[in-house]
Amino acid sequence: MQAWLSVREAMVRTGMSANRVCREHAIHWVVGGRGGSSRQYSVQGETLRSLYQRAVRILQDEQKERDELLLALRRTGASSPQEAQPLPIAALWNEALK
């Protein structure tokens, strides 16, 4: 999620495409525990693009599953009260983007 969020935020802020953002920007984070040592990591270029594309595929898969469910419901004449609600993962990630 963090890769998707960082790339989307940079796209909005700079007006660049996802590929260009991945090529020119990097994500940095620190991992460590209480009182222990910490390590700093960073991702950029093809690695960042790969993480971003993986997140995009997760969102697309979620949308596809929902579309298939709604189609199956419509075929049987049923409807879903949840139909108008946003997708769970997409809603969470887009909320974090705001």
Task: Describe what this molecule looks like in 3D.
The chain is an alpha+beta fold and 98 residues long. The chain has one domain. It has four helices and two strands, in the order ααββαα. It has helices at residues 2-14, 18-24, 45-75, 88-97; strands spanning 26-32, 38-44. A two-stranded antiparallel ribbon has the order 1-2. α2 (18-24) packs antiparallel against α3. It is elongated.
Total domain units? 1
Instruction: Please state the overall shape, judged from the principal axes of the Cα atoms.
Output: elongated
Mean pLDDT, nearest integer? 85
Written as H for each helix and E for each strand, in order along the chain, the element string is: HHEEHH
> Strand-residue fraction?
5-15%
* CA(first)-CA(last) distance: 14 Å
Largest sheet: 2 strands, antiparallel
Number of helices: 4
Which value, in Å, is the CA radius of gyration?
18 Å
Structural class: alpha+beta
Roughly how much helix do the residues carry, as a percent range? 55-70%
- Main β-sheet, spatial strand arrangement: 1-2
Q: How many E strands? A: 2
Low-confidence stretches: none
